[in-house]
Amino acid sequence: MERKVPQSEAVVMLNMGGPSTVEETHDFLLNLFSDGDLIPLPLQKWAAPIIAKRRTPQIEKQYTDIGGGSPILKYTQIQGEGMAKLLDELHPETAPHKPYVAFRYARPLTDETARQMKADGVKRAIAFTQYPQYSCSTTGSSLNELYRRGKAGEFGDIEWSVIDRWGTHPGFIEAVAQNIEASLAKFPASERSEVVLLFSAHSLPMSVVNRGDPYVLEVSASVSRVMERLGHSNPYRLVWQSQVGPSAWMGMQTGEALKGLARLGQKKVVLVPIAFTSDHIETLYELDLEYAEEARELGIQVERSESLNDSPVFIRALADITVEHLKNQKKSGPTSLQLGLRCPGCTNATCGHQKTWFAAGGRA
Ligand SMILES: C=CC1=C(C)c2cc3[nH]c(cc4nc(cc5[nH]c(cc1n2)c(C)c5CCC(=O)O)C(CCC(=O)O)=C4C)c(C)c3C=C
Ligand SMILES: [Fe+2]
Ligand SMILES: [Fe+2]
């Protein structure tokens, strides 16, 4: 679709969200377990409240231990506002740029954002996933939710375009690499090149990997690019964390990797979160409290590479990705897809997204 008339552009930051306060944990989990794109459960409507209730005390404790809630809304707002300011300078043709946040499981939920955008009279918007790498269970779920809300008329009449992945964008890679370099600098210069970079990403059930979900490949591509940017200065591994439940998940697990490194006599490690851009339980609880403690017990000296959070290099990358998207509206490619709002990520028959996607001729 060609855009002829210069007009202001809304940029909708899509992500899962997190409970801003401990009290919001139950509702967050209820929304999460109700999402069939993330966790398809038999009798979902009935099973979700039971599982959410059972899991709430444990997850509440984790959010309490990391300071009383998730910082994801704070950082998404900082990132969105910083990006929009830069966009006004870098792409004045579509100024003013207004950032919105649409979370999947915590406030502001998509329906709330839709109401706001409708009230603001938004006519054009970019759905900008904040997951660098594509998974049907994350970005796919957010796109499907936008699609449902759009179809119900909740957004009003908006012309959409989609940025659905950017895990190899040079700006993102640079931001991650700089944070790794800052962590490496904490080791004495003479020991620095021995430090193992342990990239850690949220795992994925093997059932999802095996149906062709692109996430594992795209996370691997991010790691590869970061290592290229670092000139392969250090040994590295990509490992997986945060599996939930008894089914098989992508491995090897971060905890097992730490034990393996200790056995091999590798006693210096930088843990690098690579698949999520703001701090959350995975970084502040699992990496900083659980794994770092485990590593120290194993005699490993461990540093954790900072999450991108309010990194100016990262915020500039978000603006650059958006500008490239705006300039390449008609080309196909990872950051310039004119897809309409449905999960395009699947090349398999079991996910269920691709059915509606191809039926719509690749457009919603
Ligand atoms: C890129 C990031 C993530 C992917 C991919 C992902 C897939 C995925 N997750 C579950 C199940 C759960 N995830 C939960 C919380 C959670 N997940 C991510 C990120 C990804 N998930 C984040 C950032 C969080 C929020 C928690 C936090 O770290 O702050 C939970 C709830 C928490 C819990 O009960 O342990 C579940 C459940 C599946 C099944 C899945 C892929 C299909
Ligand atoms: Fe999908
Ligand atoms: Fe998850």
Please characterize this protein's 3D structure.
The chain is of the alpha/beta class and 364 residues long. The chain folds into 2 domains: 9-167 and 313-359, 3-Layer(aba) Sandwich (Rossmann fold), CATH 3.40.50.1400; 170-304, Rossmann fold (3-Layer(aba) Sandwich). 43% of the residues lie in helices and 13% in strands. The chain has 12 helices and 8 strands. It has helices at 25-33, 44-65, 72-90, 110-119, 139-151, 170-184, 206-210, 215-229, 254-263, 281-297, 312-327, 353-359; strands at residues 9-15, 97-103, 124-129, 159-163, 196-202, 236-241, 268-273, 301-304. The strands form 2 sheets. A 4-stranded parallel β-sheet has the order 2-1-3-4, with helices on both faces. It has a 4-stranded parallel β-sheet with strand order 6-5-7-8, sandwiched between helices. Strand 3, helix 5 and strand 4 form a beta-alpha-beta unit. Helix 1 packs antiparallel against helix 2 (44-65), helix 3 (72-90) packs across helix 11 and helix 6 (170-184) packs across helix 8 (215-229). It is globular, with a radius of gyration of 20 Å. The two termini are 13 Å apart. InterPro entries: Ferrochelatase, Ferrochelatase_AS, Ferrochelatase_C, Ferrochelatase_N. This is Ferrochelatase.
Name its key features.
lyase, alpha/beta, 364 residues, disordered N terminus, Rossmann fold, disordered C terminus, 4-stranded parallel sheet, 2 domains, 8 strands, binds fe (ii) ion, binds ligand L6N33NVT
